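User: Hello, can you help with two protein structures?

Assistant: Certainly.
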Amino acid sequence: MSHTAHIPSHRKPRRSASKLALRAGVAGGVLGTIAVAGAAGPANAEPVTETIEMPTLGSLESGAGLASAVAASAEASHQEALDQSLQAQENAALQKAAKEAKKAKAEADRKAAAERAEEARLKAEQERQEAEERASRDRERTRLAARSAVSSNDGGSSSSFDSGSTAGSGTTETQAPSGTAASIVAFARAQVGDAYVSGGTGPNSWDCSGLVQAAYAAAGIDLPRVSSSQSSMGTSVSLSNLQPGDILYWGSRSGSYHVAIYVGGGMYVGAQNPSTGVVERSLDWDTPSGAVRIL
């Protein structure tokens, strides 16, 4: 055999230093315990004949229990972190919802204030228009009165646009309406108390020409929609010679701004304005400028 050939070793493999130290420590501890016990015993003590069981190293089960406890603690910490995160998200969502609700309320308040302002503006505009209409009627009555006075001084006949002083009490109509006129008058009077709405054509709110048009439609007669066109229909009649169903107008015949229906007895029915609605009034209450007869 060659002197360089490998000769297998018959020695056992060396144990690791940590294992050797562990075993030495355990053995030393056990031997030290025995020695102390022997020294402390009485001198005449009998020799120990029982076998002492050597303690063993900690089992794997105790290590697994420790690992389980550590894992459980980590899981609890993780769950606590999740709970805190969810709580933070809930708080953020509540804060966001509160901000959105506050913003929505502010927007609703702003819109309500804008609507109130618009209503006030429309009311003021309506009142201004009514004041202008009253002033226009007053001017027209003054002009017609002056014209009538001139005609009387010149010995001329009274114009068909007589002033209101003769319109209310000077009418010669004494008979109750009948036939078509009765239908028109009945419809007009049935609407007394309804609201006035600009552009209204019923059934519960009207403007002046809408009411006149509907009253004539109830008798089967078609009229134009606006007051200036309605007062241009038919034949002009004197305010002292009115008959039920005649259309009264304010302003000039071709440019009237208000119309109503004469219902007899010196009375008329008309949709006046938003303050009064549809009313029945005496001719003396607001004397018309003239009248036309459609029937």
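That covers the first. Now for the second protein you mentioned:
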Amino acid sequence: MKWDRSAWTRGRVLAGLAVVTAGLLAFHRVVPNSVGHLGSLLELFLPWLGLVVVVLLVLALLRRSAVALVALLLPVAAWTYLCGGLLLPGKSPGAHDLVVVQHNVSDENTDPAGTARTLADAEPDLIALEELVPAALPGYEQVLAPHYPYHAVRGTVGLWSRHPLMDARAVDIKPRGITESWERGLRAAVRTPHGEIAVYVAHLPSVRVGASGLGSTWRDESARMLGRALSAEKSKPVILLGDLNSTVDDRGLTPLTSRMNTAERGFAFSFPAAFPVARIDQVMARSATVTHIRTLPETGSDHLPVAARVSLGR
């Protein structure tokens, strides 16, 4: 391919788009949330700006634009800094690691037993479930009981464990605007072979994307309430499992991400199950490290399950 001097003059629009993309990646927190929660909406799909970079690269090559190719180094560097580490292989399992599974099983799931078997096949220490409905609960209990004899359910969230559970109680994360019965938070102490840990299971309110932007007011309020509960938690370590209805980049989850570690490796896009575009099912930890997260096979839910390895770091 022959390049001439005009390669440095054509493609300026592409170069400008590359700079804008780099700016959105590097300074996404600057995008205001005052109108339609646009900042949170951007952060929900932040990793996908990498596809914009690929498209711009193809166009720059077709245009034979040297200036655009040089400008593309900016978004490539920004994306690599934000997301590149998630692509690296995980560390080898350690002696003090726990495997945990998080899954919104869906209140419309017609195969609770099959879903439970899929989760148990990952051989986790802990299984957290959301959208449990009374009619489906016996199906999960029957399949999980042989290997997970300890469990606690509060409202529509539950925790199954290989290790003894103690002091299980509900956690109030209900936004003020919700008037119907709504119980989606659980806290329990788990006596593991490596010491006692506090485990929280949570299902934050759903968000909606519409013409006015991202509707996340209830989700954000619930996240603040959960953040206060985590801040008051005296036990160490602490693990949070839940359908948090956003990604860890979303500033709406700052009350949680500012207090907890998130996964070091793995994208694990979990929603929607038919074509996952975001991981809204999260595993976070305090005084511990989430070393790797991955998805499990599809179940009867509109979410994919995620499995994570948590190092207690002894």
